[in-house]
Amino acid sequence: MATKQLKQAEGPLVQFINRTVIPLLLILLVPQSVMYLWYASVHCQGSLTELADRLTNRGGPALVWAAVSVANPAVYAAILAFCAFQVLLMLLVPGRTCYGTETPTGHVPEYKDNGFACYLITMATFLAGTVYLKQRGLTPTVIYDYYGDFLASMILLSLAFCLLLCVKGVLAPTSTDHGRSGNYLFDYYWGTELYPRICGIDIKVFTNCRFGLTVWALAVAVFALKSYELHGRVVDGMAVTAALQLLYLTKFFWWEAGYYRTIDIITDRAGFYICWGCLCFVPSFYTLVSLFMVRQPEPVGPAWTAALLGFGLASLAVNYWSDWQKQAARAADGQLNIWGRPARVIRAKYSLDNGQERQSVLLASGFWAVSRHFHYIPELSLTLCWSAVCGTGCHIIPYMYFAFLSVLLFHRSFRDDKKCRDKYGSTGPSTANWCRTRLCRSCSDSLQFTAS
Ligand SMILES: NC(=O)C1=CN([C@@H]2O[C@H](COP(=O)(O)OP(=O)(O)OC[C@H]3O[C@@H](n4cnc5c(N)ncnc54)[C@H](OP(=O)(O)O)[C@@H]3O)[C@@H](O)[C@H]2O)C=CC1
Ligand SMILES: CC(C)CCC[C@@H](C)[C@H]1CC[C@H]2C3=CC=C4C[C@@H](O)CC[C@]4(C)[C@H]3CC[C@]12C
């Protein structure tokens, strides 16, 4: 009885922590933290000790905000022009129609698969713009010079944008997948809508892909160019990190339609976490290695260059390959060969909210038979390769993205397992990695385990 009462008492406390304390801390602290990290990378020789020293002895937290302007009209004009360009590309560039995962309410989101073309057009425009400016004695690295202003202004704009999304989800939702939690703070943090669209523009595709990841790619290019301008050459480490990150992002856009079926899109609502995260956290935190290297170039030498590039490329290939296997198995309804042998798949049943039954193909071959989230290993090893170019000179900043990603992916694997358990019951992917072993004999009746 005492235990039961304790468990009941734990419910509201855990809920309070998860839905109020953690969101509040993240909303208050993360925007500040990314500004401090920018400041440390650009003004403190990339040293957190130097940052701490300046914060304690030379003006406190206001020091960082004093170094940037949130009232620079040219910065706002550039941000809005970039957003308008991306929106135009989303609307005008052709692409085949593709579909996201059916939601529990039976909604199947439809997309135009034009991400790769939009990305190529953006990068080509940037290249052409750079040549044009350089011929006139100008340079796009002015973006680096004003990056603090860009980040600070984006933080404010994005916080306001997330508020707008939150209200939109309550007053004018786009699809059936929306609702309030009863906690205003959590609604702001998590969002009120799963698939918001404004004038036909899918908001999460815009924030995550066309803004966040595109700005990441552009920032990597701008920082490499700035490094060249400052040091008269692109240092080998900068070249390796830029090449690996740009290839990773090119791979992402090639595979973008697959991203529409990941938990960012099918589970996470459009709120502070995903939208602010992609509008501000990706351009600031995910770009830290390149930002750091602009002022702290570290020559790594030919042997390390070759090793990091080689291992990084191999990691990228394995990560893409495993995502591809999962996608190909679904597309072929399980009728395909994986690693030269007929694929083993689980046909897992689940129900929509209205009771209608559906079936999914879950791959249990290839990388998906090795372990449940095996593809996170190459994702992490690739990240380590593009960070290790900064050397081991006692700097923490270049390794912060790797540390963050390790925690994020660890947590994500539990989130996804829970999501699949709730959806498929005992037949979900948590079973998939067991199916090579004796445990597959204990699969329940609703589980059809096939090798085609
Ligand atoms: N750099 C970064 O910040 C991050 C990068 N990534 C990368 O993004 C890519 C995609 O992310 P990922 O986390 O995998 O996406 P998700 O974990 O969101 O995709 C998982 C979904 O795939 C389906 N699924 C799970 N197991 C199987 C299976 N055995 N066969 C078929 N379908 C299955 C399930 O959806 P359903 O409901 O359809 O069954 C599941 O919910 C990866 O390359 C990852 O490394 C990921 C997170 C962060
Ligand atoms: C505290 C918050 C501000 C943290 C926000 C985190 C989000 C910005 C990130 C959470 C998951 C991330 C991503 C998932 C999968 C991806 C596919 C990959 O190939 C490219 C990167 C990404 C889109 C990545 C982007 C950032 C997140 C959405």
Concise overview:
The protein is mainly α.
Q: Any ligands, ions or cofactors bound here, and which?
A: NADPH dihydro-nicotinamide-adenine-dinucleotide phosphate, ligand LRGFMEAS
Cα end-to-end separation: 52 Å
Q: Classify the beta-strand content into a percent band.
A: 5-15%
Spatial ordering of strands, largest sheet: 8-7-9
Largest sheet: 3 strands, antiparallel
Give the averaged pLDDT, no decimals. Answer: 91
Number of domains: 2
Q: Portion of residues in helices?
A: 55-70%
* Individual helix count: 19
Along the chain, the helix and strand elements come as HHHHEEHHHHEEHHHHHHHEEEEHHHHE
Backbone shape: globular
- Sequence stretches where pLDDT stays below 50 over 5 or more residues: 1-8, 431-452
The number of strands is 9
Catalytic activity: cholesterol + NADP(+) = 7-dehydrocholesterol + NADPH + H(+); 7-dehydrodesmosterol + NADPH + H(+) = desmosterol + NADP(+)
GO molecular function: 7-dehydrocholesterol reductase activity
GO biological process, one term: brassinosteroid biosynthetic process
Pfam families: ERG4_ERG24
